[in-house]
Amino acid sequence: MAALTRRDLLALAGRAGALALAGSAAAAVRAAAADDPILAGRPLVRYPEKTDLILLTSRPPQLETPMTYFDRAITPNEAFFVRYHVFPIPTSVDLATWRLKVHGRVDRPLELSMDDLRTKFPPARVVAVNQCSGNSRGRFAPRVLGGQWGDGAMGNAEWVGARLRDVLTLAGVKTGAVQVTFDGLDKPAFPTVPDFVKSLDVARIMDDPDVLVAYQMNGRSLPMLNGFPARLIVPGWYATYWVKNLSEIEVVDSVFEKFWMKPGYRIPDTPCGCVEPGTVPARTVPISRMTVRSFVAAPEPGARVPAGRPLALKGIAFDGGAGIAEVQLSSDGGATWRRVTLGADLGRYSFREWSASWTPPGPGPHRVMVRAINAIGESQGLQPLWNPAGYMRNVVEHVDVVAS
Amino acid sequence: MRPVVVAVAALLTAALAGSTAAQDKQITLPPDHEYGRLQDGPGQDTAQTQCQSCHSTDYIVRQPPGEARQWEAVVTKMIKVFGAPISETDTRAITDYLARTYGRPR
Domain holding B57: CATH number? Predict the structure, then answer.
């Protein structure tokens, strides 16, 4: 058997990439990983109620969605990313005994069963993006410590549940209440490890009919690893607030500043949430609303494509709730941009699908860049913003292909 | 006889609990993946044992290579913030191991 040259290997890799386009996401990741240093070497694993996802960490589990799933607006439940902070996490829930406790500065403390949640409050629905604050952290330069995510710590689903403000209204929030805290069934094994508890302002909750206690995700119960039996939905805000396996809601009369609110999940108190790369911010505030992002999901990075023939490109765009107004492509390094076709509008908090046709002008490598603009004129920069925790990345993204 | 009794009891429980019984959930998590195992070298045993008593060590192997200072700060955080019960001797051994194995030459 003749030895393979490097050229042969590259050709084989190209063919594998083409096969992956038509085949499973598993094959796609193996092909893509070779030229992505952040994904390279990371195994595909299959967890309960999940399909093959890219492993970041085993315990607590952190699993990343392969980019091939972002050619459509709705992310399937089994492909939705997973991120926990403390261990152990809940592995079983019995709805006969599960209760959502609502207490603190309220007139009537509640212990709601799943039936209560479903029947005592009118069901509300929202399609909303859930994105980890540190999505794409692995791409920061200079690099920063923390979960070295690629771009797959995000997903979009249709959530159905009770409005949080309806729940709080039933409990009766007392005068002087400032914030509401949220705790889930994930409890650290050691008492010294800070429990994962998050907080939101009372006013922010009462003003927003889309903040939900969701018990349904894409028409089904939530996967355990995405928060069964109920999780908080905070449309437009980063996933850190979307507390999973929710068990306790407490109304408090001061600003809650335990570990996961301070010093955890803070951004520089500057208009961009950023500082000069490598420097320390003077003041920080809790992370909140998401910035504008857009991605190319197809073709895959490194795909071999025919020169001079139209190529179909697909992807998604989203922001923190103003809604996507426009998505643009550039194939000349950002000198000129053209609008692409937007898919159905599933609401201002949702992924917006986009599609375009582009013809590689000749043989050789080509780079196609994508950027989105939201309804209030916010967009993405050609230079990445930087902060020490690796949050809120929203630089213009691209895909590199080779035409022949 | 016994399996029948158990089955009937299970059916009764399901019927009493109504529609929600079918939605109870139980999963089994896989063990830590091999890819997160710390590289061999002096101090590996101590680091592997101590670190994995709280979390899988893939948390470590994927971090950007940093100076000894970086790893000192990480180990200090685990002790001071998360309360990891690590002796002074082991702290030194773990920090040295991490800096040597996952560090960047100065």
Answer: 1.10.760.10
Please list every residue in chain B whose beta carbon sits closer than 8 Å to the beta carbon of residue A61.
Answer: 29
Give whole-number Cα distances, A117 to A47, A102, A203, in Å.
Answer: 28, 12, 22
- pLDDT tens, per residue, chain A with 404 residues: 333 333 333 333 333 333 333 334 444 444 345 579 999 999 999 999 999 999 999 999 999 999 999 999 999 999 999 999 999 999 999 999 999 999 999 999 999 999 999 999 999 999 999 999 999 999 999 999 999 999 999 999 999 999 999 999 999 999 999 999 999 999 999 899 999 999 999 999 999 999 999 999 999 999 999 999 999 999 999 999 999 999 999 999 999 999 999 999 999 999 999 999 999 999 999 999 999 999 999 999 999 999 999 999 999 999 999 999 999 999 999 999 999 999 999 999 999 999 999 999 999 999 999 999 999 999 999 999 999 999 999 999 999 999 99
| Chain B residue nearest residue A223, CA to CA | B25
Q: Which domain holds residue B56?
A: 34-102
ipTM of model: 0.88
CB contact under 8 A, A59 and B66: no
- Contact list in A for residue B82 (CB cut-off 8 A) is 190, 192-194
With H, G, I as helix, E, B as strand and everything else as coil, classify residue A296. Answer: strand
Does any domain span residue B28? no
Q: Is residue B82 part of a domain?
A: yes
pTM of the model: 0.90
Is B82's Cβ below 8 Å from some Cβ in A?
A: yes
Domain count, chain B: 1
> What is d(CA A151, CA A105) in angstroms, rounded to the nearest whole number?
40
Q: Which residues of A touch B32 (CB under 8 A)?
A: 58-59
Amino acid at A125: R
Is B92 a domain residue? yes
**CB within 8 Å: B62 and A194:** no
B102 token code pair: 């996952």
Residue B79 placed within a domain: yes
Residue labelled with tokens 């306790």: A248
The continuous run of DSSP H or E covering B52 comes out as helix B44-52
